[in-house]
Amino acid sequence: MQKKAAKKEMIKEASSEISIKKLELTANKIRQDIIKMLFAANSGHTAGPLGMVEIFTALYFKILKHDPKNPKLEDRDRLILSNGHICPVQYACMANSGYFPEKELLTLRKINTRLQGHPNRLDLPGLENSSGPLAQGSSIAAGIALAAKMDRKDYTVFCLMSDGEHQEGQIWEALMFAGNKKLNNFIGIIDRNNIQIDGYVEDIMSIEPLRQKLEAFNCNVYEMNGNDMKEVVVTLENVLKNRNKTTRPSIIIAKTVPGKGISFMENKYEWHGRPPKKEEAEAALKELQAEREIIINKR
Ligand SMILES: Cc1ncc(C[n+]2csc(CCOP(=O)(O)OP(=O)(O)O)c2C)c(N)n1
Ligand SMILES: [Mg+2]
Fold it and tell me: 271 - beta bridge partners?
């Protein structure tokens, strides 16, 4: 009996390893797409999207209840991107999961494209909100979470936010509202990459002690390494499991490396809002291809 249970556990562990490996390979593809898109557009944001690849990949390919072929599915989870400038990572995940053809990714920021530099929900089915003005998404997400409660719906609202955004008053209003209205269906994820447009967050205007502030706003707070696929998946699954045991909103502080995966971009705020030039794109893709081989040969 015990042997049987141990074997079952082993199989479970092995299959979850496979699915983590599969997600890591997808993440690598998403990173390659981001570099190609930004190079083709010759403008846009590079560091933030690269740092958030594991989180978006885990959401789109494992966690979200959604149907790319039916973007209006009534009970779908809602993904609200508040820091709209990192949309290349969202577009790449949407295309790779089947919302629209992958070749369309290369139209990023071109005239009349559906893939605007800041997302326009009226252009692209599957986008829940338009964004660009920082912090607005937090209020949109809190409003949708309240609407779900009023409609007695069980879907989850994931609100993706950045650390620079937490210098905005609107974020704190939205969190005060979510805590006060007991929106346990609101799950916030903060990209704590310590960069913003023109420097390091801690140098420009520190947002610390972030955890204590969030707790004071009646949120349950989790922390994770946002670039470790297994940790991301386990944390998200755990937060979802705990959702119905609490009346509070949940916030995950995700430590990420801006520019993750490309040696010469990592942790440099200068890559907040500039695309790679030809040689830089080539070097980046070479690094990502090498990383791909490492993932394939792992375990
Ligand atoms: C309300 C508002 N103020 C200012 C901006 C300009 N802006 C765009 S991105 C950005 C930096 C925000 O920091 P963060 O989102 O942490 O940047 P990242 O980590 O992606 O580099 C700023 C100030 C904006 N989009 N909206
Ligand atoms: Mg930041």
Answer: none
**pTM (2 d.p.):** 0.96
Please identify every residue whose CB atom is under 5 Å from ligand 2, which is an ion. Answer: 162-164, 193, 195
**CATH homologous superfamily, domain 2-297:** Thiamin diphosphate (ThDP)-binding fold, Pyr/PP domains (3.40.50.970)
**What are the angstrom distances between the C-alpha of 170 and each of 133, 173, 262?**
11, 5, 33
Domain ranges of the chain: 2-297
Which pair of tokens denotes residue 109? 């920021």
Cα 26 to chain centroid, rounded: 14
How far from each other are the two terminal CA atoms of the chain, in whole angstroms? 29
> Using one digit for the tens of pLDDT, what is the confidence trace for 22-77?
999 999 999 999 999 999 999 999 999 999 999 999 999 999 999 999 999 999 99
Residues 93, 60: contact at Cβ < 8 Å?
yes
Q: Which residues line ligand 1 (CB under 6 A)?
A: 47-48, 83, 85-86, 132-134, 162-165, 193, 195-197, 258, 272
